[in-house]
């Protein structure tokens, strides 16, 4: 996979101009939908609202040592896009009087893990959350009949797919220079971290995931499928995911 940061810069610049949501779309949440999404959407809104200072610093350090002209401006645009997601969700929550969340323990852990680390670790932690958010937003889209919320989810999904592509290209580029055994160790550690995060996300957001058609097996299969797309095939956990996908119930 080739990394073209110049192309990614163009992508983020163009995407910035394509940011509109029609807030006049029909927007009715049933009591059941409201109950299912209330806490869950607040947690994702909090996750989207990071200031990205750690990531920005890591990008600056990397750009300096590698003499890279793009990474800092891409990271600025990327953080702005994520903050745009937080604003979209916030506006929707305000419309439905869903209170915002100021802190939660998973968000605290993710922020701490990204603090004062290099670009590789920072993006590794980030992509772990991003892949899971992709599956969450597709569940949220299926879990509601509100046209407005569905269109917000579609926008988030379009953006997040590109974020994941960008981050996996960047990580694969950084990792390819490392010795084989180091790469395997990094991959295993990342999978272990991803596995733990996946369990936390499932048990924290199972109401939305189930309402959106993901049983535990379906969620497990979808998570590993996305992970494989980003980081290639060939390990025990992915084989297990394949087996479970045969019995998975995805809506
Ligand atoms: Fe986002
Ligand atoms: Fe993202």
Topology:
Layout: H1 5-16, H2 31-48, H3 53-66, H4 71-95, H5 105-113, H6 119-142, H7 147-175, H8 180-211, H9 216-231, H10 236-246
Helix pairs in contact: 1-4, 2-4, 2-8, 3-4, 4-7, 6-7, 6-8, 8-9, 9-10
The chain binds fe (ii) ion (2 copies).
Residues 82, 130, 160, 163 line the site of one fe (ii) ion (FE2).
Q: Your description of this structure?
A:
This protein has helices spanning 5-16, 31-48, 53-66, 71-95, 105-113, 119-142, 147-175, 180-211, 216-231, 236-246. The longest helix has 32 residues, at 180-211. The relative contact order is 0.13. It is mainly alpha-helical. Residues 234-241 and 247-251 have low confidence and may be disordered. It binds fe (ii) ion (2 copies). One fe (ii) ion binds at residues 82, 130, 160, 163.
Give a brief outline of the structure.
The chain has helices at 5-16, 31-48, 53-66, 71-95, 105-113, 119-142, 147-175, 180-211, 216-231, 236-246.
Shape: globular
For the biggest sheet, the summary is:
none
| SS strand fraction | under 5%
Structural class: mainly alpha
CATH class: Mainly Alpha
Please count the beta strands (DSSP E, at least 2 residues each). 0
* Fold-level CATH name: Ferritin
Determine Rg (CA atoms, Å).
Answer: 18 Å
- In N-to-C order, the SSE pattern is HHHHHHHHHH
Mean of all residue-level pLDDT scores: 89
Helix proportion of residues, in percent? over 70%
End-to-end C-alpha gap? 31 Å
Ligand inventory: fe (ii) ion
Low-confidence stretches: 234-241, 247-251
